[in-house]
Amino acid sequence: MSTIEKIKEDVLIEELTGVNNEIVLYNDDVNTFDHVIETLIRVCNHCSEQAEQCAILVHYKGKCTVKTGQFDELKPQCTQLLQAGLSAEII
Question: Which of 65, 76, 85, 87 has its CA 20 to 30 A from that of 21?
């Protein structure tokens, strides 16, 4: 097997088994910046700067990926975001 074929195989295996899900947080007209930031810190283990940057991106871009990982790890976090009144989904 050539080096290029090996790299392609490794990439394919990583796509099939690796970190390929993400929690996307969407903008709404209900939640305050403080609530979003506090929730991201509590649920997603963001530092305050990361949570603030995500909140700003959500506000101006309409959405932001706030966490990546395997589906089973993200599901409880996404559920907590939804329970906190935020709009989020795993894609």
Answer: 85
